[in-house]
Amino acid sequence: MSAVIEIEGLRKTFHTLRRGRRVAVDGFDMVVEAGQVHGFLGPNGSGKTTTLRALLGLVRPDDGRMSVFGVPTPEELARVAGRVGAIVESPQFFGNFTGHRTLRLLAVAGGVPTSRVDEVLEQVGLRERGDDRVKGYSLGMKQRLAVASALLKDPELLILDEPANGLDPAGIREMRDLVRSLAASGVTVLISSHILAEIQLICDHVTIISGGRRVAAGRVDEVLAGFDQHEWQVDVAGPERAAALLREAGLSVTDHQGLLVVGGAREPELISRTLGEQGLWVRELTPIRPDLESVFLELTGTAPHPTLPRQVGGPALPGEGPEPMIDLDATAGRGVDA
Ligand SMILES: Nc1ncnc2c1ncn2[C@@H]1O[C@H](COP(=O)(O)OP(=O)(O)OP(=O)(O)O)[C@@H](O)[C@H]1O
């Protein structure tokens, strides 16, 4: 496999009026290989968008090396720009234009044959609605129109920043199907998200970022396996005696109202044999596999607030309101940071 994106030691500092200097990305590394559907996962404010913006030359990094298709970026990005489709800032469309007209204009502006318009509308499932005005589109349809615009040049690499943001479950499912079909057609996809279930469902590889640093990377199943505690949920008649026997066998046991959670058993046979030999018959033995959410919480320290429903990357906690931001680089005319 060859690397499509390589980031090494990326660093970017912003300056805010209220809090002064703030390190957004702090020596971050990432490798995305050809053919991957790669999840870029991290809590709000962990540095995902800044990383993507730096990669695409929208913000000037302080330090680090980056390349896309082996070409150093942002310096020589123009050489490979035709092979990359990206939606990093939410594109704004004219509400009065139809989807078809919007894409046609973008195709002409980008030097892409206008015959691509119908193809990409088909690809994102908007063919039927292509002659409707954009202002009548749902948020999910607008997102798909954005993806369609990125697909016009038939990219080999597609970068999507939080594509499921603000979508309802049906919209999320549509976006997921779209990403899957693009991946199946050979496009390498990098998706940033704080929606863990999405990453777990769509992506084969993941890089987890926290506080501007990479905290885990690899195949999703391997990252998860690294956190497997070999735990099992055991339903057995006589849980108290069973717990004592299992502890004697060297296993960790916690009793959850009669259901035992047994840790440290690589194979379930150890549990069933230990209990069966003493005449205790297991009614149910279920593996407790770590999911990306628990791994993510452990790695990034994003614990649920005790008084709020659990929501990773959701709205700020009470007292943590947004602060006015200003990028002094941009005001000094050194970058294009907003
Ligand atoms: N233009 C800017 N000026 C000042 N600070 C910024 C700017 N852009 C980002 N930051 C800060 O950099 C940090 C990383 O932000 P970034 O948007 O990259 O995170 P993120 O992981 O994409 O978060 P989200 O999931 O909320 O989009 C945050 O602390 C943010 O406040």
From TrEMBL:
Belongs to the ABC transporter superfamily. Keywords: ATP-binding, Nucleotide-binding, Transport. This is ABC-2 type transport system ATP-binding protein. The keyword Cell wall biogenesis/degradation does not apply. It comes from Micromonospora halophytica. Coiled coil: none annotated. Residues 303-338 are annotated as: Disordered. Pfam families: ABC_tran. The keyword Membrane does not apply. Transmembrane segments: none annotated. One of its GO terms (molecular function) is ATP binding. SMART domains: AAA. Residues 313-324 have a biased composition (Low complexity). InterPro entries: AAA+_ATPase, ABC_transporter-like_ATP-bd, ABC_transporter-like_CS, P-loop_NTPase. Residues 5-236 form the ABC transporter domain.
